[in-house]
Amino acid sequence: MIHEEESIMRTSLIIILAAALVAGLFAADGVSAQGEDLPLQLALFNPAQVRPEDTSIFLLRVNLIYGKNVSVKGLDIGIANHCTGGVSKGLQWGIVGFVEGDFIGWQDQFVNMTGGTFTGFQSGFYNDIDNGEAFQLGVINRARKMSGLQFGLVNYTESMYGLQIGLINFITGKEKLPILPIVNWSF
């Protein structure tokens, strides 16, 4: 019975994704105004991509090598994923993710970098945010200003409301004991 239910769920998901893909292909005529949200993006490398870089994507972006758009709301997968502004939401998965604007969701890549406000979870070898509310899980975690948890070998932040767990933990704005092994905190 369980196997049957899983099969039905998998088939339903494939049908929904296929319908969204087909609808997206017919909904967008390839010509877009700056800042318009379009459902799909396929990029070999910028500028060799289906949609121009000044558009936002709201369903799925696949970057075979390097994709660049204003923002992505949905699933952003590829080797190098680059968003230049606005608010990106969802899952960004690949090797390198760079968001110049704000991000809400999960970045799961070897290198994760968000220059705006980050809200969510970063997992990878190197995680970097400017500011936000986050859980960072990696070998090296860096934040300028954050609330949340850093769990890794080396954790660094200038200002923190939260906890660091790792081999070496830096909170440079903390007056007493800014560097501690194993655990550091600021509340």
Give a concise summary.
This protein has 187 residues and is mostly beta strands. The chain contains 1 helix and 8 strands. It has 2 domains: 32-100, no CATH class; 118-187.
Strand content: over 45%
**What is the CA-based Rg, rounded?**
19 Å
Number of strands: 8
Instruction: Determine the N-to-C terminus distance.
Output: 50 Å
Mean pLDDT: 89
Helices, by number, come to 1
How many structural domains can be distinguished in the coordinates?
2
Largest sheet: 8 strands, mixed
What's the helical proportion of residues? 10-25%
**What does the overall shape look like?**
globular
Structural class: mainly beta
Helix-strand pattern: HEEEEEEEE
How would you write the strand order of the largest sheet? 2-1-3-4-5-6-7-8
Outline the low-pLDDT stretches: 17-33
Name the features.
187 residues, mainly beta, 2 domains, eight-stranded mixed beta sheet
How is this structure best described in words?
The model is unreliable at 17-33 (pLDDT under 50). The protein has two domains: 32-100, no CATH class; 118-187. Helix content is 14%, strand content 67%. It is built from one helix and eight strands; from the N terminus they run H-E-E-E-E-E-E-E-E. A hairpin with a 7-residue loop joins strand 7 (154-171) and strand 8 (179-186). The protein is mainly beta and 187 residues long. The chain has one helix spanning 2-27, and strands spanning 37-45, 48-49, 56-69, 73-83, 87-99, 102-151, 154-171, 179-186. The relative contact order is 0.07. Strands 2-1-3-4-5-6-7-8 form an eight-stranded mixed β-sheet, with helices on one face.
